[in-house]
Design brief:
Helix content is 5%, strand content 55%. By secondary structure, it is mainly beta. The protein has two domains: 17-83, SH3 type barrels (Roll), CATH 2.30.30; 91-208, Cathepsin D, subunit A, domain 1 (Beta Barrel), CATH 2.40.70. Strands 9, 10, 11, 12, 13, 14 and 15 form a seven-stranded mixed sheet that branches. The protein has a four-stranded antiparallel sheet with strand order 3-2-1-7, with no helix packed on it. It has a three-stranded antiparallel sheet with strand order 4-5-6, with no helix packed on it. The chain is globular. The two termini are 27 Å apart.
Length: 210
Amino acid sequence: MKYWLGWALLIAAMPAHTQDIRAIALFPQRAMFEIDGTQRLLRVGETSPEGVKLLASDSRRARLEVAGKPIELELSQHVASRFSQAQYAEVRVPRDAQGHYYVGGDINGHGVEFMVDTGATMIAMNSIDADRLGLPWQDQPRSATSTAGGVVPSHAVTLAKVSVGGITVREVPAVVVVGRHPPQVLLGNSFLTKVEMTEDAGTLVLRQKY
């Protein structure tokens, strides 16, 4: 799989404020948090648009860095912290041992974990994930998609908002494949062509186009 490179995200500086962070799901190497009322799925090494970085995670606790200070949270614990958003923010996605890039984000405000796939024409997901995200895909235009299991029905949808870190793209075309494939939500070119990508020593760097 090839990863085309070349992009950057700029966020205006924000004044310091009190930030509320709660751990709502903990897993090895990734965790789901509610940060100021918004759900964020982070993998170890990733930083949310609010400036919360996940340093480590297992099924019992997560270690974060907020405003340069380490914080540990167990499931359902929450913490309030003073925080100043950085003037510049970027999403840095480490490559895994299999050479893939996984990144937390959200679709229409619901947390998901994406696999970056520049070979996919658009964002693609299976119908089980689409149901979980509350997408009304059944009534949308129908076509067919080739999968490892053969040619299966699919439906074209438009996602109102797709976010990865601080990058947000609106009205993003996507496809819902009936069944369990693809097993991971694919971050395809209907999103990727709206941003810039670069690679830095095995880390994919994502930035917003302006």
